[in-house]
Amino acid sequence: MGGSILGNRVLRKEDPKFLTTGGVYVDDLLDEPALNGALHVTYARSSVAHGLITGIDYSDALLMPGVVAIFSGADLGLQPQPSAYNPMATRTLLAIDKVRYVGEPVVAIVTETREQGEDAAEAVIIDYDVLEAHVDLEKAMASTNLIFDACGSNVVFDSMVLGLPDNTGDAYFEGCEVVVKGRYINQRVAPCPLEVRGAAASWGTDGRLTQWLSTQHAQGAVAPIAAANGVDAAQIHVKTPDVGGGFGAKIGAYPEELLLGVIAKKVGKSVRWRETRSESMVGLGHGRAQLQYVTIGGTRQGKVTHYQLWAIQDSGAWVDMGTILAPFMTRPMSSGVYDIPNIECRTTSVVTNTTPTVAYRGAGRPEATAAIERAMDMFAAEIGMDAAEVRRINLIPKFLTPHTTVVGQTYDVGDYETSLDKALVAADYKGWREKQKARRASGDPKQIGIGVSVYVEITGGVGNGESAKVEIQDNGHALVYTGTSPHGQGHATSWAMLASEQTGIPIEDIELVWGDTDLVPIGTGTMGSRSLQQGGNAVFAVAAELVNKAKSVAARLLEASEEDIVLDKDAASFHVAGTPAVSKSWADLAVAEKAAGGLVHSDVIGVSGATFPFGAHVAIVEVDIETGKVRHIDHTACDDAGTVLNPMLLEGQIHGGVAQGAAQALMEEVRYDDDANPITSNLADYAFISAAELPSVRVVHMETPTPVNLIGAKGIGESGTIGSTPALQSAVIDALAHLNVRHIDMPTTAEKVWAAVQSAR
Hints:
Blueprint: H1 15-19, E1 39-45, E2 51-57, H2 59-62, E3 67-72, E4 81-82, E5 90-91, E6 98-99, E7 105-111, H3 114-123, E8 125-130, H4 137-142, E9 155-158, E10 178-189, E11 198-203, E12 209-213, H5 218-229, E13 236-239, H6 255-258, H7 260-267, E14 271-274, H8 277-283, E15 287-298, E16 304-316, H9 321-330, E17 342-351, H10 365-383, H11 387-394, E18 403-404, E19 410-411, H12 416-427, H13 429-442, E20 446-456, E21 465-472, E22 478-482, H14 491-503, E23 510-513, H15 531-558, E24 565-568, E25 573-576, E26 579-585, H16 586-592, E27 599-606, E28 614-624, E29 630-640, H17 647-666, E30 697-702, H18 719-735, H19 750-760
Parallel strand pairs: 1-14, 12-13, 16-17, 22-23, 29-30
Antiparallel strand pairs: 1-7, 2-6, 2-8, 3-7, 4-5, 9-17, 10-15, 11-12, 11-14, 15-16, 18-19, 20-28, 21-22, 21-27, 24-25, 25-26, 28-29
């Protein structure tokens, strides 16, 4: 008999399509009948960061070739809508009275072609009474020049409103032998998915609106689209074609997307919209953007006893998902993997005249890890102890039953010291320290830096379950319906493996159905590394229940007791125990059940809680102290995501995560001038990592199954990003430690590194 397919390196079912004919994205829907002759929508956007709109003149634009209609927010009768996270902050989907960031949509232009829309947008004249713009978080906090007047302050959320205490300041560290303070910037970054945002909308003769979206959560878009169009949710049908990356930025529905149904009804035709890359850089939500004040204290023997964090989150120009990441993701994970008996953490969220921040790969957890890992390095440097050893002294001991930290977060399982040891050995940590010593002794201008990080993160905490349906077709093939949404992770392969494990149906005969709210009305989408542990878990459980249903049908057909029916997974058929010669295939059962509604089972399967994957990364860099140039030359990642379903998919997620984490540590940063004008609005100005800047990543496998779900799996989609970023930042600083450089804010660009060296001399 064959063994389990789970845990094996199964090639991705998706790849033949993507590598040959290619995916079908929103902008590729050229053969969709409902979009035949669709018009194109272009948005004229604010050119100032903060100002009152004093006039809009689109008369010249209306006369341009191909222009069908032009709408302002007032033309569409748009009304202010409150933020879900602070109801005192309100906005209209098109700015009417006030603009709050460069790139905010103000006017919608409908044309026959996309190019005509771009030309017409340049002819729209918008007059502003320019106001002071805020880029600096601390200045925005103190200013009486408010971005949202009704909020009474530019501080739009604070952990103290949750009843949590303020930090007590320096008094908290009385009695500590060693106290180290730091001010760290976890810089703003752009998600930059390969596919920019796109959408299309068409009203049917039945009065329903079908909207195609490049989204991570089709089901979550139904309610806001219905609200924008003033219709019941039952009148909305959302369809998601292939999605070219999201990283959290495509979870929610944006104003440009929400307005398409309104515009389509106004012009009486279907409409399309796709942003340019430059629009994406200022319109698609940004990530990170957190200022951190950190104080750490303890003994000269290396024991950390006190830790204090004040995380100030840049919300950008709207109170969106980014606003709550600090209080609800950074704060609960502030202790990281360390057994620190005394921790204080306050978070404050502030609006600025910049692109709104949203969830981005890790969403608040990388920020927590970056803060505590940087603090551990500073503490180690202060007492003259090896950074890896300081971490080892303070790690929470291995636990296989839930462990609650001092900040109140309960981890499922953890074995942090083993992950650190595995990473250090695989990376040859001692060998690299010897090479570093030799380089320093020789005075080589190219110095070696070694960075270590140990992390834990929370995954699968969004939603308390997921929907799944498994349906057997007349030919014995299976359709698997899921409420999660793939955008590169390999769901078609993973979910087929899980269904095959239960049913015996070959994975090539299992097809995944997703991203269609008529076919899958219930779903929480893909975010927070929840897919496998909730969506996959649901498929696994539902497929098992379908097998039980099938046994009942087989028992009737074989005229036997249900208890005597067994499933031969190798043959994908059912027979009476001991008599395999007479059997019924899945096709036989599906045909037999056709009149009764088919052989199908669906359910929403809950999970008992979130999971907490963990691991350790070791990064090696070479730094040219004469030019500041940093080369990432070696990387080891030991990431424990519980039970591994497919090692190849896991490694792919780690490789991608390390790439994004390294990019933040070394080069990526969204920048604005003092007037909040973006100066990184294209991929020529925004540093974007490529394979040429990355080493091969050494992946060290470790599995500590979680009891939270049937599979024993934890999330892996964000782990590589969380572990790699502080390791790279630490490595760069470590290369310069003998020159008395103690800290460099990310990104550790050549300019910053060179300046740090000059200042230390």
